[in-house]
Amino acid sequence: SSSHSHQMSASRRRHRIFGMTAMLVVGTLGLSACGQVDDPTQAAEQFAEQLSSDQLEALDGASLAKGSMEPESLAEATAALAAYPATVSLDSVVEDDADELTATADYTVTWNLSDGTEAEDAAEASDAPVESDATSEDHWSYTTQATLVWDDEAEAWEPQLAAETLVPGLAEGGRVDVAVAPAQRGKILDTQDVPLATERPVQRIGIDKTHLLNELAVDGEEPTDDEVSEAAAESATALAEALDLDTDTFIDRVQAAGDRAWVEFIVLRDDDETDIPSDQITEIPGAVAREDTMVLGPTATFARSLLGSYGEPSAEQVENSDGEMTAGTPTGLSGLQHTYNEELSGTNGLEITVDNADVSTEDLPDSDPVEFSRESEDGTAITTTLDTRIQELAEETIGDSDVLAGLVAIRPSDGHILAAADGPEDTSWPLAMQGSYAPGSTFKIVTALAMLRNGMDAESTVECPETINVSGTEISNFDGYPSEHLGEITLADAIAQSCNTSFVGQFEDISPQQEHDAATALGLVEDPIVGYDGAFLGSVPTDVEGTQHAAGLFGQGLVQTSPLGMATVAASVSAGETVSPVLVSDPSVDPTENENLPGNTPLTEDEAAQLRELMSGPVETGTVPILQDVPGVPVLAKTGTAEYVSEGEDLAHTWIMALHGDLAVSLFFHEGFAGAQTNGPVLKEFLTELEEIMPSES
């Protein structure tokens, strides 16, 4: 005998055939015997394929033995299992008494009761049958039998389809019941173990057409189709207007739904911050507000891009998930909800039974019904490094911004990301963690490290001409650069006043590789391990030359970083070593597994001390003296402005990064005048208020 396995998907009972070397012709189970009885093995294998695929309903009745059950009836009886992939393996097939011309096939049936992806993944990796543990909580296995009958006229073996062929103990007219006990989803906690994402009360508002029909019925007479359609349109219009939704969309949905369907319009938080028009809803025929819970953050906008969302995936998300998501099955869709979906989701409890209550006693099969039971196991909590107070302050600081913005706060002593805010408040994509922009003059701290490694120090003399020519391109300082700081100045003064030409002038002394190594030493590594999918720190190419290389030395050209990246640079300067930022503390994240961390060129405490001295200049004597007014220990900072062109207009990204006690901050605005003038006052406000939450002198 031989064994071949066949896999069906969770959502459409679609199956991949594993290990089949022979060409199988669907719908023709027999093989020409040419006057003699053939070996039944291949027919038995084909039957296994069709039992475990969407071909079950399409089985040609003519290819089944007499007395077989209708395939459509078996599919209907086992419909409750349609969400779970099945593997049917042929264990053996034995011809019975030659006079009877029958054969008995033994099969092992295994249902994958997990998320439906493990078996496919295993098969794709090995192109071999999927082995399942019969005692596993994720798999349900049992053996079954089928009879094959030789048809002389067709010269083929024909299987006899019965309900118990697929599910032992199931009678024709019975059904398989699946009861699901949902697991409690794990919470996402802040650094003080305060729940961020957890089950919170909501109101599901929509039209219940059963209620609508009941209200339309007069003296027990059912309304006409036209009356129902008209009433549905009126209710949909009234409810959509009350909720400020598009009326045409919901009129179509309500009218297209079944006579007793529930049509959901919107889900709203049931809290003091949400204005639910309850009085208006109760006055609309068929309108209902159902109480429920959803996994949500403390507010609609709090750390939205970090926490992510949880719910049923859209058709597009299912299509793009590479089998990870299933239609109708709630899952983590983005952010931490997606990254840690396996830990958060737990395992649903299952009770699978055979119900033959409507079957007469004489029609019950001899075999005992199979069953499966699994207790639910709640998901585990995820602990983030976020400090709710600091995150809220960061969001308030840039929530009213007129342009895209990002603010990141890192604690240098342990690399914990205390806040990562996106602005304005309706921004839903993670700019702070994933944005990629030229960092402007904040990047001069990276170039300064390369200069220190070439033997300079804060008092070394550098040239600061008004302009400098590189490969035919003229580069100048910013408009309004103080003339008294032109000519020969110290490196400290070049940082404090942000002289572009001083750093461009190093393009022959600092190689692209040295600049890259300096950036890596300050934490700008590729593919960081942060505990958050898609986090981006920076990209400093080594295959540049001429003008591109020169521009990169003051944060223009092809150099790209994120607000998270520049906060990491500041954190490394503060810590005296390369900082690898993390967003999740439990389960622990090990950023040292990143092969891109600095090897032979890590940041030293002596280098960091000199960089801290350089970062004191912009506040004490340079571009942002406004930060002298921040209470607590002195602020260290570096401003930056990166020019770009949009639709023919010259614009600028504006930056500032700063240190204040055991805190490193980066603040970015997609468009502004300059880092000092645009970002400086905003950062001052943030650090001043933060001093009351987290004193810098502690």
Description:
The chain is an alpha+beta fold and 698 residues long. The chain has three domains: 5-175, no CATH class; 188-374, Alpha-Beta Complex (Penicillin-binding protein 2a (Domain 2)); 388-693, Beta-lactamase. It is 28% helix and 24% strand. The chain has 22 helices and 28 strands. The strands form nine sheets. Strands 8, 9, 10, 11, 16 and 25 form a six-stranded mixed beta sheet that branches. A five-stranded antiparallel beta sheet has the order 18-17-28-27-26. Strand 8 (188-189) and strand 9 form a beta hairpin. Helix 15 (444-453) crosses helix 21 and helix 16 packs across helix 21. The longest helix has 19 residues, at 675-693. The protein is elongated and about 110 Å long. It starts with a strand and ends in a 5-residue tail after the last helix.
Entry keywords:
Penicillin-binding protein 2a (Domain 2), 24% strand, six-stranded mixed beta sheet, five-stranded antiparallel beta sheet, alpha+beta, 22 helices, disordered N terminus, 698 residues, Beta-lactamase, 28% helix
Concise summary:
With 698 residues, the chain is α+β, with helices and mostly antiparallel strands. It is built from 22 helices and 28 strands. The longest helix is centred in the C-terminal third of the chain and has 19 residues.
Cα distance, first to last residue?
75 Å
Structural class: alpha+beta
Low-pLDDT parts are 1-34, 116-135
Number of E-state strands: 28
Q: Can you give the mean pLDDT?
A: 87
Q: CATH first level of the largest domain: which class?
A: Alpha Beta
Helical fraction equals 25-40%
| C-alpha geometry | elongated
| Number of domain units | 3
Q: Say what oligomer this is.
A: single chain
Q: Based on the structure given, which CATH architecture of the largest domain is correct?
A: 3-Layer(aba) Sandwich
CATH superfamily of the largest domain: DD-peptidase/beta-lactamase superfamily
Largest sheet: 6 strands, mixed
Note the beta-strand portion.
15-25%
